[in-house]
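Appendix B. Raw example, untouched.
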Amino acid sequence: MEKVVFINRSSKVVKGGRRFNFSALVVIGDKRGRVGYALGKASEVADAIRRGGELARNQMVPVSLKDVTIPHEVYSTYGGAKILLRPASPGTGIIAGKTVRAVLESAGIKDVLTKSLGSSNAANVVKATLNALLSLRLREEIYQGRGLKIHKVKPPEVPVVTEAVVAAPATA
């Protein structure tokens, strides 16, 4: 799934007038925990988007998810952009701005709370968000790295109630 986050137009003044070039920041993901981004540049908008999509597809990386949210809270920065991501209960949705939302939706995250602080530069916000997602680790990964075993907690046993013999009411 390809999302265009930001399109920039730059111009160069030449003898005959102005020459325009376009850059497109594209985020792509499979909605199953893999996401990538790229900046495609070309003299036409459509070519810039296509090139950005191709580059992003080649740069996809896996991120750790816990069902449809993230395993734990994470804070990340890139340049002046600062991102805070928090897991949310089912049904919350993605509470985020459009730049952060594009990255999270592409990764397949459905319930998360976010706050973007500092710079709103789209490229740096995307990079900070991806850094935050890459720093997420599941409990299983942490335990495995430390050489520990995960102990499954059994639910408490409920006593089985057998049918009680009820005495018939005495007839008078």
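End of appendix B.
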